Amino acid sequence: TKSVFCLPPQTFDKILIANRGEIACRVIKTCQKMGIKSVAVHSDVDASAVHVKMADEAVCVGPAPTSKSYLNMDAIMDAIRSTGAQAVHPGYGFLSENKEFAKRLAAEGVTFIGPDTHAIMAMGDKIESKLIAKAAKVNTIPGFDGVVETADDAVKIAQQIGYPVMIKASAGGGGKGMRIAWNDEETREGFRFSSQEAASSFGDDRLLIEKYIDNPRHIEIQVLADKHGNALWLNERECSIQRRNQKVVEEAPSTFLDSVTRRAMGEQAVQLAKAVQYSSAGTVEFLVDSKKNFYFLEMNTRLQVEHPITECITGLDLVEQMIRVAKGYKLLHKQEDIPINGWAIESRVYAEDPYKSFGLPSIGRLSQYQEPLNLSNVRVDSGIQEGSDISIYYDPMISKLVTYGATRAEALSKMEDALDNYVIRGVTHNIPLLREIITHPRFISGDISTNFLPEVYPDGFKGHQLEVGNRRELLASAAALYITAQLRSQKVLGNLRVSSTPVECTHWELCAELGEGLYSMEVTKSGNVYIVEVDGGKVEVSGQWNLASTLLPLTINGTDRMLQCLSRDASGQIVLQYLGTSFKVRVLSKLAAELNSYMPEKVAEDTSSILRSPMPGSVVAVSVKPGDTVKKVHCKPGETVGEGDLLVELE
């Protein structure tokens, strides 16, 4: 008998990835697996980016601004010609849903790894897509099926539909050009703002109005279709945890859907895909109310950011399926072959300050970066590494952190560990918020909606709120770390300072400042174990106490905890990341604490007459000038500003 060796079906020799960051890296990984050569494109500031290093070839397509590089169709077409790429994978964002780009590729005989142009056009227009969905017997939200011309029209239509209404850009996406209005005045204002935002973001100011479903869930169905009329639904993704209409935490499957609702949503998603002769991977987004009524929201004709969680529970590689379909192969699977195996959760890790509007962008260089890949069932899709810059030019995403388990509880527990073991230094990041979400009782019980964040944190996110037990753990850990550092600094390399071995001190009296509180502590040491009496309780802390390590694994009162020491200084200031949030603790000897009361306090800046930038970015417009009850304007349109930069002084 002869042994038969089956090669994977031949698809393309070379694929160009018209994207950057984590999604470009993700596509390249599948290309490598399939034996396909990859071409990266990059802006000049991305010349040493991870996706550029991973690819077999790389071409610079312009300067940093996206309009001159990653959206520069002429330069990308030149890159395709010069490298001889036979196909293009657009990733998500940028040119992924641009019908003009897909047409230009088709004209040159280059395969677009995505749906045909007519499907992109039909689903890219929110007005047309809603009409097609209605015709395909897909549930749609009550609303006005047409373009709203003026603010007066908007008010009339809103009154007919009944408040609240959602005003949104027809060509929109990513939460841009969307406003909720609860009355006539808000409708007029929303019409004006949405049309301005739509024009600047999409070059298309057309708006539509529909009924706003209050407190809904955002649940989407992944579809996969080929060019032979076959289409599958690959289960759902629960994407209700959002801020500013952008997803923060996603999971698959959803705790909310039963098998009947899941099948109904899946079948409607497939009906819509077939109605537009869809081929490739795509996503049909639905709003689901508390009674499990679901309504079509939009179809994304591309690979979604959150596709990894679907891959985890189905075992399919969606990028591989997209490449096979683009080459013309039939789907390998039938609907009954698609499983739900286990549970997967994705946290979007951003270089953002979660204490400002649940996340305003932060920039900087990753001085230390370590992904928690030492843990099992953890997947990290990233496009950066230690030393990478997070700049103002692109989305501030650091990575997509995905954990997988046989059950939801297992996946959540793994996510907690992964967030605690994730080392990110040099930029502000949103791990404090992510960890609070996944450990919140409402999230654990599955009681979520798109209003979760504003409902749970009505006054904004404030980090982990310490209860007495947690506060004792934190103070005891800081005290033990302080003493470890003190003992180490008393030793001199090679020999001790005196010939006779001194008896090492084993008992200390310390004080700690945490927030507004001052706490007395008594510390006893035995080997690697510290017993700390603080705040009316006793805490036992043990560990290896490696002061050079980024991670600080401790056992506190019998519970294993992973802390991170973010900084220590000579004045006793220790910044610890504990339960996801970073806390400043100042540990002092009793004498130093007494003397500290004589130190002058720094007076806070009077901000009543000045305006500072809340985040880094470009100034779009300055609508005031000196004399308009402003004393001085410190910026001009087009200028780049950093977080905290002075913008305007008031009189």
UniProtKB/TrEMBL annotation:
UniProt KW Ligase keyword: yes
Record's keyword annotation contains Lipid metabolism: yes
GO cellular component, one term: mitochondrion
Alphabetic keyword roster: ATP-binding, Biotin, Ligase, Lipid metabolism, Nucleotide-binding
Domain ATP-grasp: 132-327
Molecular function, one GO term: metal ion binding
UniProt xrefs under CDD domains: biotinyl_domain
Cofactor(s) in the UniProt record: biotin
GO biological process assignments: lipid metabolic process
Residue ranges annotated for the Biotin carboxylation domain, each copy included: 11-458
NCBIfam families in the record: PRK08591.1
PANTHER family on file: CARBOXYLASE:PYRUVATE/ACETYL-COA/PROPIONYL-COA CARBOXYLASE, METHYLCROTONOYL-COA CARBOXYLASE SUBUNIT ALPHA, MITOCHONDRIAL-RELATED
The name this protein goes by in its record: Propionyl-CoA carboxylase subunit alpha
Native species: Sparus aurata
Lineage of source species: Eukaryota, Metazoa, Chordata, Craniata, Vertebrata
Gene assigned in the entry: PCCA
